[in-house]
Amino acid sequence: MKIDKQQIFDINKSVETKHLIQLDFTANQLQHKSIDGQSIIEKLKAFQVAIPSWALGAGGTRFGRFSFGGEPATLEQKLDDIGILHSLTNTAGAVSLHIPWDIPKDYLAIKEKAASHNIIFDAVNSNTFQDQSNAKESYKYGSLSNISQAVREQAIQHNIHVIDIGEKLGSKSITIWLADGANFPGQNNFQKALKNTQDSLKKIYQSLPDDWKMFIEYKPYEPNFYSTVIQDWGTSLMLAESCGDKAYTLVDLGHHLPNTNIEQIVATLLYKGKLGGFHFNDSKYGDDDLTVGSIKPYALFLIFNELVYGIENNPQNPELSWMIDASHNTKDPLEDLIQSLEAILIAYAQALLVDQKKLSQAQEAQDVVACQEILQNAYRTDVRPLVRESRLQVHAAIDPLIMYRKLKIRKNLIKERGKNSTATGL
After folding, report:
1. Which one, out of 197, 358, 382, 424, has a CA that is 20 to 30 A from the CA of 133?
2. Under a CB-based contact definition with an 8 Å cutoff, are residues 272 and 315 in contact?
3. Helices 356-364 and 297-313 meet at what angle, rounded to 10?
4. How many Cβ atoms are within 10 Å of 185's Cβ, its own excluded?
5. Cα-Cα-Cα-Cα dihedral sign, residues 5, 383, 355, 29
6. Which residues contact 114 (CB under 8 A, 6 or more apart)?
7. Which of the four pLDDT bands, split at 50, 70 and 90, describes residue 426?
8. pTM, 2 dp
9. Is 297:343 a contact under the CB 8 Å cutoff?
10. Share above pLDDT 90 across residues of the chain, in percent, rounded to a whole number
11. 3-state SS, residue 276
């Protein structure tokens, strides 16, 4: 299905008066602080987040999976779902494909389908964390780090194949996440596993087109619980630097031990010019892949504060790639993605309110109280009217979630695709 612009216009009209009252109040507050609300709105309008092709169906746990019905059973349908999100939010203008779950059968047709929704192709993602049908070698004991040269070569060639697919689609980057590691002491030689990984990544890097980037993801544990080969940002950074200038670290918010200071990691990578991108989600205990901002919204704001500062002050770092990486088990996947996009824009807008000059002066004066007040005043400002206005100005939904429900989109998707339709790759 495709949302008609007239539908958006009509529903917006029904809530526009209330929105304008709230916007006027917020704009007046900001004006008293000499903050140009429209300049923030312009930045929100330009902010785009990639939707991963695997996030459009119901996720699950190791124990079970519960479908919502009407799930996209083909890549074409996934692009249609992202088109719905983009029509409602104007923030989901890119898709990140997972290979081999979503290999196009007709590249020209897929590119035309994406273009019809004003969607571009962001980073392509390889998969060496599970065995594929007809594969000669198994990744049971690792892929790029495996002690077996034959296994490593198979994993290398898979990543090169993913790059080839991305080139055909117009993508400009590949994200590599490894499940490689060990569950028991003595299972792996740490140094050999790291060396094998480094050598494998270098071979993949050599196949990168000149205008491409390689993003190296890290994770402290899971699915291996004793050790992970690329377990933290430092290891990822070391591997990226060993590969070359086109290799960067990618930060997944759920890929950290509890209470890790992620904003400091972000600042360090920006300073070194090696932050490639973000996978947004939220967590309580580990890699929970929960809705963005649902558990730690203040932490998300602090991360965005470092991002805003870094984007302004670290020209050595390239333009960042943004993506949501979440799993939906108890929510409608599209509703969950709408909530995540909203949380991202809110945190971004709050961070844009921080007076970096005053904050720097307070830091220079070692006025700890003032530093906290500057940050928390920005965080406690209700920026939702600015986010809504950023959508209204580009003819998207003032309130995407309300519009999604009023248009009965999930019901229509079930009617179109059936109750038992299951998303590919899950």
Report:
1. 197
2. no
3. 90
4. 8
5. positive
6. 79, 95, 120, 121
7. low
8. 0.97
9. yes
10. 93
11. strand
Q: How many angstroms separate the CA atoms of 56 and 86, rounded?
A: 13
Alpha-carbon torsion (391, 114, 167, 243), positive or negative:
positive
Question: Which of helix, strand or coil describes residue 216?
Answer: strand
Q: Given pLDDT bands bounded at 50, 70 and 90, which one contains residue 375? A: very high
pLDDT the model gives residue 401: 98
Sign of CA dihedral 131, 133, 137, 143: negative
Exposure of 359 in the CB half-sphere (CA atoms within 13 A):
16
- Residues β-bridged to residue 317: none
User: How many residues appear in the chain?
Assistant: 426
Question: Any alpha helices (H) in 314-380, and if so which ranges?
Answer: 333-353, 356-364, 368-379
- How much is the pLDDT for 122? 98
Question: Which one-letter amino acid corresponds to residue 229?
Answer: V
Sign of the four-CA dihedral 180, 121, 301, 250: positive
